[in-house]
Write a structure and sequence with these properties.
β2 (26-29), α2 and β3 (46-48) form a beta-alpha-beta unit. Strands 3-2-1-4-5-7-8 form a 7-stranded mixed beta sheet. It has a two-stranded parallel sheet with strand order 6-9. α1 (7-19) packs parallel to α2, α1 packs parallel to α7 (150-173) and α6 packs across α8. The longest helix is centred in the last third of the chain and has 24 residues, at 150-173. By secondary structure, the chain is α/β, with parallel strands linked by helices. It is globular and about 55 Å long. It has helices spanning 7-19, 36-42, 52-55, 57-60, 79-82, 103-112, 150-173, 194-209, 220-227; strands at 2-5, 26-29, 46-48, 67-71, 87-92, 100-101, 117-125, 136-143, 188-189. The protein has a single domain, classed as Rossmann fold (3-Layer(aba) Sandwich), CATH 3.40.50.12230.
Length: 233
């Protein structure tokens, strides 16, 4: 099994995969990534790359007997990767029926829009498809409380990402999973949406959506964007 991604979500998934006895061929993450110390302690093969679509591809060719898992991966995978051999899977931070695109913007949008539930999606990645639009293996949702802010929803959604991975990784490794299609959102959220989302949110919803808490350092671009927003006057 191959892994591609970054951060704590990647290292937790690799740790669990080792714990359940699944062989790991290679883990690919950016140079200097925060996951590296834990990955090195686990003794798994690591490829550091800032361009996995190029650097990872030779390791995947003709590996139809394996799987590639994308976790907290900031790169859109090319069709060359998706056609290279392994079946490819992704955990998206969002329920794709309404929220596709960048995880932090999906959460920001859900709070600006006043949603009462949020969740995550485990899906298969296929060539020639829109981002976050592949067939679904599983979803996990949770209710949003009236006082929930961005940092609380982010923490709960990341916990769901770990849980949905643990619930399904063994079956995926044995190729005994089921998948299905749903009608996904036609829109994939990006930083271009922030102005529109803020304008439609109002002060109360914006206050919750922009309260990044301990995640401020992880999303400096989002922090800068919301800091420039003013209401009233």
């Amino acid at each position: 099994m191959f892994f591609l991604g970054s951060g704590s979500l990647l290292s937790q998934a690799v740790h669990h995969t080792c714990a359940v006895g699944i062989n790991i061929d290679l883990v690919c993450c950016p140079f200097g990534d925060s996951a590296l110390p834990r990955l090195k302690k686990l003794g798994v093969p690591v490829l550091e790359s800032n361009d996995p679509n190029v650097d990872l591809l030779p390791h995947l060719n003709s590996r139809e007997d394996s799987q590639l898992f994308s976790l907290n991966n900031k790169r859109i995978l090319t069709d060359a990767i998706l056609k290279s051999g392994p079946e490819c899977f992704n955990i998206h931070n969002g329920l794709v029926q309404k929220y596709r695109g960048l995880a932090e913007i999906c959460i920001f949008a859900a709070l600006c829009n006043g949603e009462d539930r949020y969740g995550v999606t485990l899906q298969k990645l296929l060539p020639n498809q829109k981002v976050d639009a592949g067939p679904i293996l599983a979803q996990r949702a949770f209710l949003l409380n009236n006082g929930d802010s961005f940092h609380q929803v982010m923490k709960r959604s990341l916990d769901c990402c770990v849980e949905i991975f643990k619930d399904n990784i063994v079956d995926i490794s044995k190729n005994i999973y089921d998948s299905y299609y749903v009608e996904v959102s036609q829109h994939a959220y990006s930083y271009k949406d922030i102005g529109r989302l803020c304008a439609g949110a109002g002060p109360d919803r914006f206050s919750k959506a922009s309260n990044l808490g301990p995640y401020r350092a992880f999303f400096p671009r989002l922090m800068a964007a919301v800091s420039a927003v003013e209401f009233g006057g």
